[in-house]
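Many introductory courses stop at the sequence. We go one step further.
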Amino acid sequence: MKKIFILFFLSVVLAQSTEIYSPLLEIGVNGMAKDMVLDEKELIIGTDNGVLQVYDYESKVFTKTVTLPEVQDFMGDLIPPRVFSVDKIDGRYLLLSDSGKGGYVNLWIHENNVSRQLLDSSEKKVAIKARFISKDHILLGYLSNEAALFSVKSKKELYRVQLSESKFSDFALNEARTQAVFSCESGVLNIIDTQTGKVVKILEGMNVDNVYKVDFKRGIVSAAGQDRRGALYDVLMGTATYIEGSFLIYATGLSPSAKKVAFVMDEQNKISIYRRSDKSKIAELQGQKSTLNNIIFKDENTLFSSSDDSTVMMWKLK
């Protein structure tokens, strides 16, 4: 009887320690949000309606919209291109979009209110994700699980490396943009040196299926797995563990200190926040209506999330 009471007491304490939150702010965007990044007080969002939108979350207004030219679909109709990867560095915006032809992509930079195209369908690039390494260099992740460094000035790749035969899923940069962790359908993660493309670390054993999303902060990697595992790797210490979910885990994000980690752990699209040191659940964010695709921490208690709909949400933990 005493043991039953203790177990009941612990379960009550555990339940009470998990705070439930609703979104602090809901941001309506022009189309379905496909990607987003954070740059100081700006949230940069790419949508499937051919636009990049810049939202100032302090003043709560959109400050910039970049609209790409329409492309022809397979029927010959003009449609807005999907902008499925965006970034910003030193006032320069990056847009990776579909071209409407054969799965090939267009690559653009936008600066001083002028958009300049770097790649079009004639180059036959099947890249899925793009991020700035510097103002003049862009890291590309290919569907074939190749990593490439692209020069803005020469419009040529400085290297391209095949990481594995598995299909590419995602990559994330560290804070200095000197390393990137790549995920794929095998569950194995590769960390590369972004300047050379050399694989410096292989992380494996925690995920046994496709890793949809990764994050990389303070030498910690989080991985959102199809196998219902939210994996955590300490790259420097060489240790790893995972948190079990109840559904496919589509998104993850680490706080700037990497002391907190977010995973989408169930089919209700609730975001679970954990204390990384002991994997204890400390908060649950409720209100996302569609499948999550991005989670970004601004600081230890403020984060943003986007999903397969036209609403981006801002959350504030106590």
